[in-house]
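[job 0412] stage=fold_complex status=start
inputs:
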Amino acid sequence: MFKGDMTVHDISLMKGNEALAEAAIRAGLDAYFGYPITPQSEILEYLSSEFVPKGGIVLQAESELAAINMIYGASGAGARVMTSSSSPGISLMQEGLSYSACAELPFLIVNVNRGGPGLGTIQPSQGDYFQAVKGGGHGDYHLIVLAPATVQEMADFVYDGFDLADKWRIPVMILTDGALGQMMEKVEFRPYDKSQRIPKPWATTGKTKGRERNIITSIHLEPEQMEDFNIHLQKKYKKICEEEVRFELINAEDADLILVAFGLSARIAHKAIDLAKDQGINAGLMRPITLYPFPTTIMNLLAKKTKAILVVEMNSGQMVEDVRLAVDGQVPVYFHGRMGGMIPSPEEVLDEMLTLSQKHEFRVIVQE
Amino acid sequence: MEPIIDLENLECVYLKPGTLVDTQTRYCPGCGHGVAHRVVMEVIDELGIQENVIGIAPVGCAVFAYFYLDIDMQEAAHGRACAVATGIKRVLPDKYVFTYQGDGDLAAIGTAETIHTANRGENILVVFINNAIYGMTGGQMAPTTILGMKTSTSPFGRDIKLQGFPLKIADLIAMLPGSAYVTRQAVFTPNHVRQLKKSLIRAFGYQKEKRGTCLIEIVSNCPSGWKMTPLEANDWLEKNMLPIYPLGDLKVPEGEVKHA
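[job 0412] stage=fold_complex status=done
writing structure:
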């Protein structure tokens, strides 16, 4: 499909997966390790054709297990590295993610979410929310999780993801879905300043004279030491929660109903809000951009000013749990979701909104 | 009483290599790991490559190899050492990279990684300790456990019908076009230690020349897991393991001499 001589302009019409891969090259990617799986194979394909001729390292591993461990090794050796997969493959990578979280390795991992459980379907889904934000593998850990809603953000969040990973020495996940990966939109690649890269004196690059040996490990056998290390990790996560929360608000300050949705669902929710406006309903949107850290504080504040909250997801109701924790019973929190690769339509979300409008007696805003 | 030895005027003829950390190891008395560690580091010391080596520790008895080896190291998940080594070598192609793995790590849970790494011809060295048992978890059956051998999970002896055959992974690796040098060595006599040292020097040399994957299997013992004294274990190894796992080079790079 590609010949390795594709000219990508700073402004291009591209698939989400390809825009993400192009952004990784522009962000100074050193190496990519991955394994084919639909609907994300374009990332591996794009890098194979566009990055290798530029001297980049791209290796198709024998499995996702191998890929994530190649990432572990290369990240531990100080390189800027990325892997990507889709739901079943991400499940296979959970062991490596747990080890990497413990070894505090910075890298970018992309989950182009498809419908599950099991082999499931190759259609888009947000069913991996719990796995992404609660840890996923064994033990007490988190990743930073970014949720793009446009092809533009598929590219932008690669830059941000690499920077956050290096800043906090943490694996960063871009949690997107099969629709965003496959759809084509306009994308503008902003310049990336590679000179700002953080040095990695901890990396295993060979023990030079005058320094202690560098060790990348995740084992602390003595429980006292393991607890101390866990305390260190939890302090880091707390600081991340204080400093890195990102979200987008649309008409959320004075709305009777606030929709909460991320990624593709947020675009559908936005459309439903516009449709509801024609019916006289004053609704707003809170779109979490960081799923971990979750925008808990703003969610709690918004709940003080609204009558009800409706969470829209492409799963059976996962993020809604974090919303309810943040809202803390101040107002009712409702849920509308579709599963197994189905995408909710703006009209069905509107129907839910109309029902809630009657139930909670929303103000009727007369259009001028 | 007069001292039997004049400590003041002794000539030092045998030193611990400077690349070994001055600490007590967690290995059992009589275990081959200590000797294998020493020989690997002696070679790194003599080749003067300490600054350019990255080692990978496995899950198993050698999980804490980085406590003892004074080089940059990574500790891999169980079985994934070859994948980790691949990641390191690809981004640092001019460094020496070696894994140090046991039979369970390399030939059971990590079989796929081991085979594909060798098949890609990654320029790394795999040091493979084969003691036919899972030592760290307390003496369970390994892929390399020989037929009839009793372990805690083959208490009546390994039976083909129940547990299949011992896996000769070095022979498998030697068949792959990506492997350059595959040899089987031992550490239970001084002569075998000397042979191993020569093999390690060859393997690091081949890595420098980017000839492909090198694997050195070390047929070793596990007195604790085998429920034997160290001497009994060495004796048992010679009589029972070497007929199944004969020592010598299985494969050498083109134009090189194969040693028995």
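[job 0412] summary: The first strand of chain A starts at residue 11 and ends at 15.
[job 0412] exit 0
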